[in-house]
Amino acid sequence: MSTTAHEETLGFQTEVKQLLHLMIHSLYSNREIFLRELISNAADACDKLRYAALDNDALYEGDSELRIEIEHDEKTRTVTVRDNGIGMSREEVIKNLGTIARSGTAEFLKQLSGEQQKDARLIGQFGVGFYSSFIVADEVTVRTRKAGGDKAEGVEWRSRGEGEFTVADLEREVHGTEIVLHLKKDAKEFADDFRLRSLVRKYSDHIEVPVRMPKVETARDDEGNEIEGSEVTTWETVNEATALWVRSKGEISDDEYKAFYKHVAHDFSDPLTWSHNKVEGKLEYTSLLYVPGRAPFDLYERDGSRGVKLYVQRVFIMDDAEQFLPLYLRFVKGVLDTRELSLNVSRELLQQDPKVEKIKSALTKRALDMLKKLAKDKEAYQTFWNVFGSVLKEGPAEDFANREKIAALLRFSSTHTDSATQDQSLADYVARMQEGQEKIYYIVADGFNAAKSSPHLEIFRKKGIEVLLLHDRIDEWLMSHLHEFEGKRFVDVAKGELDLGEIEGEDEKKAQEETAKAKEALVKRVKEALGDAVQEVKVTHRLTDSPACVVLPEHEMGFQMRRIMEAAGQKMPEVKPILELNPSHALVERLEAAEGERFGDLALVLLNQAIIAEGGHLDDPAAYVRRLNALLTA
Ligand SMILES: Nc1ncnc2c1ncn2[C@@H]1O[C@H](COP(=O)(O)OP(=O)(O)OP(=O)(O)O)[C@@H](O)[C@H]1O
Fold first, then answer.
1. Which residue among 19, 274, 361, 433 has its CA within the 20 to 30 Å range from the CA of 120?
2. Residue 1: what pLDDT?
3. Nearest to 212, CA basis, from 62, 49, 80, 88
4. Helix (H), strand (E), coil (C) string for 371-431
5. What residues contact 43, with CB distance under 8 A and at least 6 apart?
């Protein structure tokens, strides 16, 4: 008999209310996942008890056979999921089943629109967990008691999922958690033995904890003959109940790998690829790493969850062990099981253990190899790149040792396709390099169009030399850590002297020198007219269609990075551009012919235009407009 007391009714946190509302609508066509979520939680609770009991086996309270039980009753339309795992205290129940503790939740929920399909996708990214019970149930009762506690410390939680829940004290003999779902009328299909069994197999074959369901049979006498009209109930294990990563690769099907991914990653959709490795010898570990097909909602959150599920000799130790993968691979999900660490390892101890560093570099290599393999499938890799490319771009700065490997995995937009899709590899670029071309050229701009139409590209287009068009916020940062690829140096076409090396013939170079000489007087006049606004004025052969462009010295921080730093509140030392003039442009010829104030205005207009074309902001835009209008109406 159980008695309840100390009953209180509390409101769900606003975010939970929003989630419940949206989830019930958007996941209607995917209702069966509630069972996966509940089994997943129950298995985690068993894992946690096994871990806690390593130090104190009294926590088992004499029942160390961890298990999950699922029962149903068609008449009362209920499904019960029960575990003898760690259980929860009253405070834990209120926190875990009344709030969402993950940071970024409020912002995430704002993105939901009420549009069923879109929301279903987004919610899948978020992971709905326990709350998914309300997709199929109109009332949920949770009875739980923390392992090792007193039987008087049990708790009963009840809710109809409509904004509030009730918690009460409960006398509970056994530890662990029991969740009773009172199914909605239209979800009665889930109170069916056959349906439940097939769902259990689908979702939990790979979970090590046995999932049992009652089997009712006619009783037999001592000789094995059926006794008519009598029934016995036995518990039958329905899932395979072996940890997936322990099994050998050859006997695991793709579907099993995919199902396991959904359990570890709390994701609804299939992974793009995975890599399962058992390593013996000096460093012993088994790893099963996955690349998700879409980004989790907290990919860019500082404290977003990342890392692998850590097991030591099959005993679960912790979720999100982030010490085993670098930050730029934070999208990789999976499991690491190793004998190299002790069972009582903690997050703090992990930071000091030199073996952790070794495993981290081995897993990093595995993850990069997995991506290299994935890259063979262009379409799948593009999906990966579109979602995680900008995270991988953090790699060269973070992981010096693997720079070349990461560089080979990068994809860019380029003048070869002139499309914003980043789908060109550096190897592709190198293969297309012209005879005599020694460098890999790129341009960085705030957006794809600004990069594509930059005046700096004119000479490259004319000569048919490919230029990478970089337009992600992180790109200049990336390029400041990438110096060469396959021995070819990277060159920013908007910085320093333009040197096309062997691509330019001797005649061309000679002609350029002659022009420069012929325009010396013009250059001097322009520099005098512009004064401190520029550090230098030159004639250029970069341009074919534009009259002028601005360039920075080779080792100066680029304009894009400066703007990002300034936007982040960093004060940047002022840098004056170099103005380069196209000697064969009509406007420059007109400039040459101008005198006095008109000359000064025209020179300033050319400088201002060059700054605008490069994506920069003018100090005094109104003055520019006035000056331009005066020239247009003169
Ligand atoms: N059967 C259970 N036994 C013990 N604790 C549980 C159980 N089910 C849920 N919990 C607790 O409630 C918390 C919230 O569960 P919920 O399923 O909502 O989220 P989650 O499992 O943390 O993450 P996700 O939403 O990604 O599944 C869990 O982290 C766990 O602490």
1. 274
2. 44
3. 80
4. HHHHCCCHHHHHHHHHHHHHHHCCHHHHCHHHHHHHHHHCCEEECCCCCCCCCECHHHHHH
5. 68, 83, 85, 204, 207, 208, 209, 263
Nearest CA to ligand 1 atom 7: 41
Nearest CA to ligand 1 atom 23: 129
Average pLDDT, the chain: 90
Minimum CA distance residue for ligand 1 atom 22: 129
Interface confidence (ipTM) of the complex: 0.96
Place of tokens 């709030």: 99
74 and 188 Cβ atoms separated by less than 8 Å? yes
Give the DSSP letter of residue 169: E
Ligand 1 pocket member 93 (CB < 6 A): no
pLDDT tens, position by position, 255-289? 999 989 988 888 888 999 999 999 998 899 999 99
Q: What is the pLDDT of residues 386-432, one digit of tens each?
A: 999 999 999 999 999 999 999 999 999 999 999 999 999 999 999 99
Whether 148 is in the pocket of ligand 1, judged by its Cβ within 6 Å, is no
Give the model's pLDDT for residue 38.
Answer: 94
Ligand 1, atom 26, lies closest to the CA of: 127
Which amino acid is present at 496? Answer: G
Tell me which residue of 79, 4, 69 sits closest to 39, measured CA to CA.
Answer: 69
Q: Is 69 in the pocket of ligand 1 (CB under 6 A)?
A: no
Asked if residue 191 has pLDDT above 90, the reply is yes
Q: What domains are defined for the chain? A: 4-237 (3.30.565.10), 244-379 (3.30.230.80), 410-503 (3.40.50.11260), 506-633 (1.20.120.790)
Q: Six-digit token pair at 281?
A: 């010898």
Q: Is the CB of 105 under 6 A from ligand 1?
A: no
- Bridge partners for 278 per DSSP: 286
- Distance, in Å, from the CA atom of 546 to the CA atom of 606, rounded to the nearest integer, reads 10
CA dihedral sign, ordered 581, 587, 589, 593: negative
pLDDT score of 123 more than 80: no
Longest dimension (CA), the chain: 120
* Atom 24 of ligand 1: nearest residue by CA position: 129
The pLDDT of residue 177: 98
Closest ligand 1 atom to Cα of 42: 1
Q: What does the pLDDT look like over 592-624, one tens digit per residue?
A: 999 999 999 999 999 999 999 888 888 899 999
Contact 578, 420 (CB under 8 A): no
What are the tens digits of pLDDT across the range 195-241? 999 999 888 888 889 999 999 888 888 888 888 888 888 999 999 88
- Give dist(CA 142, CA 159) in Å, integer: 9
Q: Compute the distance from residue 323 Cα to the ligand 1 centre, in Å.
A: 23
Measured in angstroms, how far is the CA atom of residue 597 from the centroid of ligand 1? 74
Residue owning the nearest CA to atom 25 of ligand 1: 129
Q: How far is the CA of 171 from the centre of ligand 1 (A)?
A: 22
191, 74 in Cβ contact below 8 A? yes
Q: Of all protein residues, whose CA lies closest to atom 28 belonging to ligand 1?
A: 96
pTM of the model: 0.79
CA atoms of 494 and 150, how far apart (whole Å): 72
User: What residues contact residue 416 under an 8 Å CB cut-off, 6+ apart?
Assistant: 424, 428, 429, 432, 466
Task: State the closest ligand 1 atom to the C-alpha of 86, by its place in the atom list counted from 1.
Answer: 4
Q: Predicted confidence band at 572 (pLDDT cuts at 50, 70, 90)?
A: confident
pLDDT more than 70, % of the chain: 98
Residue pair 50/66 in contact by the 8 Å Cβ criterion: yes
| Ligand 1 atom at minimum distance from 179 CA | 1
Q: What percent of the chain has pLDDT over 90?
A: 64
Ligand 1 near 127 CB (within 6 A):
yes
